[in-house]
From TrEMBL, chain A:
This is High-affinity branched-chain amino acid transport ATP-binding protein LivG. It holds the Pfam family BCA_ABC_TP_C. Signal peptide: none annotated. Keywords: ATP-binding, Nucleotide-binding, Transport. Transmembrane segments: none annotated. The lineage of its organism: Bacteria, Pseudomonadati, Pseudomonadota, Gammaproteobacteria, Methylococcales. CDD domains: ABC_Mj1267_LivG_branched. GO terms for cellular component: plasma membrane. The keyword Transport applies. GO terms for molecular function: ATP binding; ATP hydrolysis activity.
TrEMBL record, chain B:
It holds the Pfam family BPD_transp_2. It is found in: Cell inner membrane. One of its GO terms (cellular component) is plasma membrane. InterPro entries: ABC_transp_permease, ABC_transptr_urea_perm_UrtC, LivM-like. PANTHER family: HIGH-AFFINITY BRANCHED-CHAIN AMINO ACID TRANSPORT SYSTEM PERMEASE (PTHR30482), SLR1201 PROTEIN (PTHR30482:SF4). The keyword Cell membrane applies. It is a multi-pass membrane protein. This is Urea ABC transporter, permease protein UrtC. Keywords: Cell membrane, Membrane, Transmembrane, Transmembrane helix. The chain crosses the membrane at residues 12-33, 39-58, 65-87, 128-151, 158-176, 203-223, 255-274, 294-318, 330-354. The gene is urtC. It comes from Methyloglobulus morosus KoM1. It comes from the Bacteria.
Length: 262, 363
């Protein structure tokens, strides 16, 4: 009978209870300022979650905590049921499958589009293996496929530095895909984009959901409405103000007050 | 490998060819042509060429950490000096009883200090293979320990630069002390033989020049190969956006450490080749100013190109030889001024300027 019960080992991702990311009672303060205040939140496997909130609500700090950049003062952060993210550093978290796109596009400008994707490729990232690394056929195909997805195939040999702002954002999303993440954290993907670029980005993100969980932080309400098919979480002063569908959230008087002021 | 290098960069291959040719021709002409011939190179020019090539190798080693990895290391001279001391210790042990005091085991300075026995860390240096091993191991180990502590604590930028200056200064003070057992402020000198050959002979000087040239070419090709590998791209990415690389899953500190240790080993080899050609190694090689000068060579030549470091090291040192002979008091002003001018007007150095000229000519 015993073998019927699946017992995951510590370190193995276990999402059998639904959520892939557990944040419980997380608090972070900087010089007395509470950036996150007893925040609790759960992200389901395969979910596309939008995170909104006014400036200073703690959205970016939240991403910093999940990816290991900032250590919380208290609380717990688990990846699945067994992996304690607070015990891991940035490279370990990234390798475990949580990848992040930064607010400011941060592609490697002196490398080509192809090379940017090659660096992100999910593979052994030790020093010696990297020194002798050679791309095999499957990996090459994978890079081609991702360039296709983000629409940068014809720019493969261009330096990332000469891409337009929107193209850099897509390249960065492509770099996330190369890492084959279980969770993608996407910070302000459409900031500074033209209308057409925003639409393409929305389509891109929608096409990516399901296989992986995606958390999108965005200010642009129209964009959020176009991709928010499930739950939207509103952050305010470092904790969750409310959660629900886009319509529920927009009609919540507290949200209106937070956004419009009193 | 040479063919990929050739396609990669024609200028670099020309430079390699020139170094190879010079390292053969200079000593050859020194042999073949009589002193009165116009084609004769003096013994002095043979040894000064060899010195330049060692400096070029040292500049190359700094370009790996600074130009590619973005670590402004202001203590590269320390690794050079340690490599030099390891070679100097071998050469001291070769003197044997031909020294002034005639002690078969103890070098003169130890006899002078009334020491009765050889300190333990001088054991093994009578063997060339052991000394050669120490030439790379000692700088490599110091770089490993220093780099491991600093990179792991994420010390970067100007703080790291200052610590590297402090490192070389501390070593300077330590090596000045007689009790350290490295000859105090006189250092190690009066060398007689290397591998059984008279170190003063023209044949040995010519061979040392040739070996320095070959070592420089070899180091260049290996460095080039490293920098066009995926590791090279990771390292460049670290230079431009260190934290982003971490979020891609790379352990940035391991990559920095690897490059830092490799570069320290190259600097050690450069020092080891330098010492038999100049005939002395003393603590002034640890002087913080020396390490700053290396940075200036690389900046003037053009960083992040490898051959820019070679061009810079040779040109600046050639100018130094000319100027210090002609008007020594203006040399430092000249060096400072050219550093400022290059930084302001040629931010990519001479090589970068040259490359842009070449590209502008192409349609």
């Amino acid at each position: 009978m015993n073998e019927l019960v699946h017992k995951p080992k510590t370190g193995e991702l276990d999402t059998s209870h639904g959520p892939i990311l557990y944040l419980e009672a997380v608090s972070v303060s900087f010089d007395g300022f509470k950036a996150l205040n007893n925040l609790s939140m759960y992200i389901d496997a395969g979910e596309l979650r939008c995170l909104i909130g006014p400036n200073g609500a703690g959205k970016t700090t939240l991403m910093d905590v999940i990816t290991g950049k900032t250590r919380p003062d208290s609380g717990s952060v688990f990846f699945g049921q067994t992996i304690d993210l607070l015990q891991m550093d940035e490279p370990a978290i990234a390798t475990a499958g949580i990848c992040r796109k930064f607010q400011k596009p941060s592609v490697f400008e002196t490398l080509t589009v192809f090379e940017n994707l090659e660096l992100a490729l999910a593979t052994n990232k030790g020093v010696w293996t990297t020194l002798f690394a050679k791309l095999n056929g499957t990996q090459r195909d994978r890079i081609e496929q991702v360039m296709e997805t983000i629409g940068l195939t014809e720019h493969r040999l261009h330096l990332a530095g000469i891409l337009s702002h929107g193209q850099k954002q897509w390249l960065e999303i492509g770099m996330l895909l190369m890492q084959e993440p279980k969770v993608m954290l996407v910070d302000e993907p459409v900031a500074g984009m033209t209308h057409q670029e925003v639409e393409r980005t929305a389509q891109l993100l929608l096409s990516l959901q399901g296989e992986r969980s995606i958390i999108v932080v965005e200010h642009d309400m129209e964009f959020v409405r176009s991709i928010a098919q499930h739950r939207v979480t509103v952050l305010h002063e470092g904790s969750v103000l409310t959660e629900g569908t886009m319509d529920e959230v927009q009609n919540d008087p507290r949200v209106v007050q937070v956004y419009l002021g009193d | 490998m040479l063919s990929t290098l050739y396609r990669q960069d024609k200028t670099a291959s020309w430079l390699l060819g020139a170094i190879a040719l010079l390292s053969v021709l200079v000593p050859l002409f020194n042999f073949i042509f009589p002193v009165e011939s116009a084609l004769h190179f003096s013994a002095y020019s043979v040894s000064i060429m060899g010195k330049y090539l060692c400096f070029a190798l040292l500049g190359l080693s700094l370009d790996l950490v600074w130009g590619y990895c973005g670590i402004l290391a202001l203590g590269q001279g320390a690794f050079f000096a340690l490599g030099g001391y390891a070679m100097g210790m071998y050469l001291m042990r070769q003197i044997g009883n031909r020294s002034v005091y005639g002690n078969p085991l103890l070098p003169d300075f130890m006899v002078f200090l009334n020491w009765q026995e050889l300190p333990w860390y001088w054991y093994g240096f009578e063997q060339f293979w052991f000394a050669a091993l120490m030439v790379v191991l000692v700088p490599g180990l110091l770089a490993f320990v220093f780099g491991w502590l600093t990179f792991r604590s994420r010390v970067t930028g100007v703080y790291l630069s200052i610590i590297t200056q402090a490192l070389t200064y501390a070593l300077l003070l330590a090596f000045f002390r007689n009790e350290m057992g490295f000859g105090g402020n006189n250092g190690l000198t009066d060398f007689k033989d290397v591998l059984g050959f008279n170190i003063q002979s023209e044949a040995v000087r010519a061979s040392l020049l040739l070996i320095s040239g070959l070592m420089l070419i070899l180091a260049f090709m290996v460095s080039r190969w490293i920098m066009i590998s995926k590791l090279g791209r990771v390292v460049t990415a670290v230079r431009d956006q260190e934290s982003r690389v971490r979020f891609l899953g790379y352990r940035v500190e391991h990559f920095k450490l690897w490059v830092f240790v490799f570069s320290a080993m190259l600097a050690g080899i450069a020092g080891a080749l330098y010492v038999p050609q100049v005939g002395i190694i003393n603590p002034s090689e640890f002087s913080p100013l020396n390490s700053l000068e290396i940075v200036i060579w690389v900046a003037i030549g053009g960083r992040g190109t490898l051959y820019g470091a070679i061009v810079g090291a040779v040109l600046v040192n050639y100018a130094k030889t000319l100027l210090t002979g002609w008007a020594p008091e203006i040399w430092l002003f000249f060096l400072g001024a050219s550093f400022i001018l290059v930084t302001v007007f040629l931010p990519d150095g001479l090589v970068g300027f040259w490359q842009r000229r070449l590209q502008a000519q192409k349609p």
